[in-house]
Amino acid sequence: MKIDAFRLISIFAFMMAFFLPLHIGISNLFLILFFIISGYFLFLKKHYVIRKPKILLFTLLPVFLLYLLGLFYSSPPFDGTKIIGRNIAFLLCPLILFFYSNEVLQRIQKSLFNGIIVGTILSIIILLTNNFLNYFATRPFLNFDDEIFNYYYTYYSFSNLLDMHPTYLGAYIIFAISLLLKKLINNNNYKFLLITALLILSIGVIFINSRMIFLLYVLVVFSALLYSGFLFYKQKNFKALSLVTIITAIVVFSVVKILSNTFVVTRLTDELQWELSDQVDTTYNDKLNADSRIARWQTAIDAIAQNPFFGYGTHSEKDVLAAYYKKNGLVVSFNQRYDAHNIYLSFMLEYGFFGLFILLLYLLSNIYLSLRTRNVQYFLLIFMICVIGCFESYLKNNPAITFIAFFGTTFLLLAYSKKIKETKL
Prior knowledge:
- By secondary structure, this protein is mainly α.
- The protein is 70% helix and 1% strand.
- Strands 1-2 form a two-stranded antiparallel ribbon.
- Helix 8 (166-186) runs antiparallel to helix 9 and helix 14 packs across helix 15 (317-328).
- The longest helix is centred in the first third of the chain and has 35 residues, at 102-136.
- The model has no long low-confidence stretch (mean pLDDT 93).
């Protein structure tokens, strides 16, 4: 039987992205299948192209090599070997996608975009259905009050069914929203379906109840509204401009009023204030005691100060922090073996200033390319790493590893080719 490798490439890319917000294990399976069929297509069928190796410096490949280097001076040596497999996408995505032609990369990217859109919509429909079934199990059907937005129906309680951290799920949703907004602005067809999909995902953002996701959502949606308003003004379509302005004002006012006395606002105000103050073993939501992020960050900085240039080695973060948590009296953090909850501090702990340089090389070079090529979705992807990384050890967990490695590398290769083409012109 003849293998249609070209078609399978698109199918596996779609399925990998589709399952990202649903089941990371199945997503990884399709990523492996994508790697296998890519090897067949590129090297056995000889459809590969040759690019300048220089571009690999701006992928996640240097980060993977940093992880390998850190194995040699971790304590005990090579203790971090167990996480190399988890980060293999940092190696394989750049090395495999590097050999694809731009035409095939564009097809792969389209499949990734379609997959992440459909997958996020389905994931939110599943989670909302589960949420409402749990909610109405204790009260009359369709009898709503502000309890629907409390601790037991938002944040971890909302996303727990899919066994996914709400912020990581939220990153997929924000990216899908940006793709849908682009379609809505540029396409006059299927507007009802696009608006319905955006409404579903927007409701999902509320229940995800992640501060970083709220910030990204506001930036993405209001940027789209400002751009649409500019287009309407340029076209002298003042009726549409007025309508969008009025609807936006009504929606914002209504959402603020509905959420004003709920757990959603509490997380944005009282809890955020608690997180950004020096709190050790105190209560932040009347349910459990914890140590604030500021307290943990200060402890991480103490640890970094003892080994600032090359850090403590791969997979050393939790062990090093545990020792310093115990020393500084952060009992809850010690017992829970919390990481730094900050990607920049995390890299400095394990790899020092050298590791931070490698991380910033990736982030800044990709931000530059996204701005140079005016690719909004590309910029958003890297900007999300920068923002979420302030409060989470993003790039160190599987839902972010495969997402950024695959999507980010595709963006980079296409943008770099576009930059070279524009330079020649």
